[in-house]
Amino acid sequence: MSNRSIAERREASVTRAAASVHPISPVKGLGSYVWDADGTRYLDWTVGIAVMNIGHSHPRVVDAVQRQVAEFQHLCFAVGMHESYVAVAERLAAIAPGPSPKRAFLVNSGAEAVENTVKIARVATGRQGIVAFTHAFHGRTHMALSLTGKADPYKAGFAPRAAEVYRAAYPYVYRNPYGLHGDDAADAYLAQLQDLVKTTIGESEVAAFLLEPVAGEGGFIPAPERFLRGLRAYADRIGALWIDDEVQSGMGRTGRWWAVDHYDLEPDLVATAKALASGFPLGAVVGRESVMNALEPAMLGSTFGGNPTACAAALATMDVIEDEGLLTRAQTIGAVLRERFESLQARTPRLGDVRGLGAMIGLEFVAEDGHSPDPVIVQRIVEDCRERGLLILPTGTYGNVIRLLPPIRMSDAELTEGMTTLEAAIAAALREAPVPA
Fold first, then answer.
1. What's 123-182 look like in SS3?
2. Second label for 17, Cα 20 to 30 Å away, from 196, 262, 324, 388?
C-alpha cells in the first residue's frame, strides 16, 4: 500500500467532488504527528480541521473507546436513554458559557448542530428570520449551506436555499470598508447590522442572530468584543436569540472552553462538534434551559446522535483538557505563535495581518500593493510546508489566509519545529513570488 496506489483506487471509486488539500494517505497518528502510507512523518498543524485538539490517539481516549465498544455499541436514544449520553449532556451544561441553567441535545456533526439551533430558535421565539453573516461557514447540509457565506465551493449550484435567511456584514476589521479601527470599526458594523434589521427584515421577525465568534473558513477572524456585546444587547432588546457557532473555536481551541468565555458573554444557544469527541462523530446543541425546553417531546431526534462510543470519547476528551491544564496550554501556544509571527509581520509587508484567539491563529497574506488578497502565495507556502514535513491549511473567503491549528498539548520542541518550518516556507515563497511588471 502506498500513497500512489490509494490515490489510484480513489480515482476509480470516490467522487471528484470530495477533494483533499494534501495528496497523502494518512495511516497512523500519534500525538502531534501523522504518518502517510509511504512512511513519511508530518507534524500536524491541521488536526483534522480543529478536531484532534488533544492530539492523535491519546491513550485515555483510546482506552475509553475500546472499553465502550466491547460493552455496548448503540441503541438509539429515542428507544432508550443510555448513561453516557446523559453524562455528556451534564458536562456540556456545566461548562457552557454563562450562569443560566443549561440543557443539551446530541447529534452527529457541526452542521446538524447548527440546523437544530435554528429549529429550536424558531420554536422558542415564534419567529422565522435568521440573520447570518458574511465570511461565515456553518456546514454543508441544506440549512447550513444556506447560512454559509461563501458561494464557491460551498453554495454554488445548490438551490433553492432555505427561506428566511438574511445576511449581515461580519466585523472583518482588517478589511472594513469604513477605514476605521478598534471600537469605531465595531460600532460601524453594529450600526449597519441594526439598520439592515430595521429596514430590510423587521425587528419583530428575527428569531436569532447566528455568528461564529471567530470566523473559521472566513479567515480566522475574531469578532471584536465590543461587537459581540452590542449584538447581545441588541438581540435582547428586540426579543431575538443569539446562536453561537463554536464548532471550530470551541473545546479549548482558543484557551477557554468557548471563544465567548474570553468576554464573559452568554449566548442563548451554542453549537459544538469537531474536537468534542476527538475524531468520533458527535455534535451538540447546548443552551439556556428556557429555550431548549420550549419544544415538545420528540420534536428533536437523531438516530446516531449521542452514540455511546462517541460519548465515551467526548467524556475522555473533556477529562484530558481539564486534567492536563490544556486551556492554559492553548493560551501559551497562542501567545508564542502571535509573538513569533507578529515579529515576522514587522519585517514582511506581504504578511498583512496576524490575528486570532489562543491556539487559533490566522496569517493573512497580501499582494505587493499591501492590500489585495494573495491566495497564490498561500498555496505555495502550504505545499512547501508539506514538503518540509509540516501539514497546514489555507482558509479565508479569498483563500489568502493560513490557519494555524496545532494540537493544544504539543511540546515546546514541536511548537518550535513547526514555527521554524513555516517561517522557512514563507521566506521561500516570497523569494519565488513573481516580480510585478
1. HHHCCCEEEEECCCCCCCCHHHHHHCCCCCCCCCCCCCCCCCEEEECCCCHHHCCCCCCH
2. 388
Residues 285 and 380 in one domain: no
**Is the same domain home to 185 and 315?**
yes
The structure's pTM equals 0.95
Q: Are residues 317 and 193 in the same domain?
A: yes
How many separate domains does the chain show? 2
Residues in the chain: 437
Q: Report the alpha-carbon distance of residue 328 to residue 331 in Å, rounded.
A: 5
Residue among 431, 74, 51, 87 at smallest CA distance from 272: 51
3 state SS of 222:
strand
Of 305, 323, 341, the last residue of a domain is 323
139-169 core/surface letters (b: 16 or more CB in 10 A; e: else): bebebbbbbbbbeeebbeeeeeeeebbbebe
Indicate whether 141 and 242 sit together in one domain: yes
SS (H, E, C) 51-82: CCCCCECCHHHHHHHHHHHHHCCCCCCCCCCC
What domain range includes position 329?
3-54+325-432
pLDDT digits (tens, 9 = 90+) for 126-181: 999 999 999 999 999 999 999 999 988 898 888 889 999 999 999 999 999 999 99
Of residues 360, 348, 240, 287, the one with CA closest to residue 101? 287
pLDDT in tens, 250-272: 999 999 999 999 999 999 999 99
- The reply to whether 315 falls in a domain is yes
Task: Choose the final residue of a domain: 323, 350, 371.
Answer: 323
Regarding whether 398 and 271 lie in a shared domain, the answer is no
Report the greatest alpha carbon distance in the chain.
Answer: 69
Parallel/antiparallel/unpaired status of strands 401-404 and 390-391? unpaired
Same-domain pairing of 299 and 372: no
CB within 8 A of 120, min separation 6: which ones?
A: 269, 285, 287, 291, 292, 294, 295, 300
CA 357 and chain centroid, separation: 12
Residue 162 belongs to domain with CATH number: 3.40.640.10
How far apart (Å, rounded) are the C-alpha atoms in residues 185 and 205?
27
Q: Is residue 437 part of a domain?
A: no
